[in-house]
Amino acid sequence: MFAKYFEEYQIGESWQSKGRTITEADIVNFASLSGDWYPLHTDAEYARQTPFQQRIAHGLLVLSVGSGLLHFEPGIVVAFYSMDVVRFYHPTFIGDTIHVNLEVTELTGHKNETGLVTVRQQLVKQTEEEVATSKVKILVNKK
User: Fold this and answer.
1) Which residues contact 105 (CB under 8 A, 6 or more apart)?
2) What's the pLDDT band for 1 if we cut at 50, 70, 90?
3) Which residue, among 1, 60, 5, has the nearest Cα to 27 in the 3D structure?
4) Which of 74, 51, 68 has its CA nearest to residue 123?
5) 133 by DSSP, 3-state: which?
6) In whole angstroms, what is the distance from residue 16 CA to residue 102 CA?
7) How are beta strands 130-141 and 114-125 bridged, if at all?
8) Beta bridge mates, 107
9) Strand pairing of 114-125 and 77-88?
10) What is the full DSSP assignment across 51-64?
11) Alpha-carbon distance 101 to 92, whole Å?
12) pLDDT tens digit string along 63-109?
């Protein structure tokens, strides 16, 4: 996905990642790492009393898994530059499988020998429900 030099991208090109299933272990490990033990994520009895009726994955966990589904080629990708306009539309439950759809929306030259590739990132689960969207910029090298 991010394995090309800046000049090789075209506005409108798109990709779809492979899928990954969110597990209970993912949620527990993320809660341990982040310190976010909010009961909607970690307490089954509490979550049953909410409109979701079950535990949901942390939003930042879902975004992190989505980032992990992307390919960043060393030597081409300089840095993950920014993420803006993040919106969550549907919950991600234990057992849901998510994948990422990307579409290049903007190409901007940057300092030195780099450019910013802006993509619309869409996280989708197996039901085809859109889980989250964001605008992501990746700093890549020019040839």
Assistant:
1) 11, 118, 119, 120, 135
2) confident
3) 60
4) 68
5) strand
6) 6
7) antiparallel
8) 117
9) unpaired
10) TT-S-B--HHHHHH
11) 16
12) 999 999 999 999 999 999 999 999 999 999 999 999 999 999 999 99
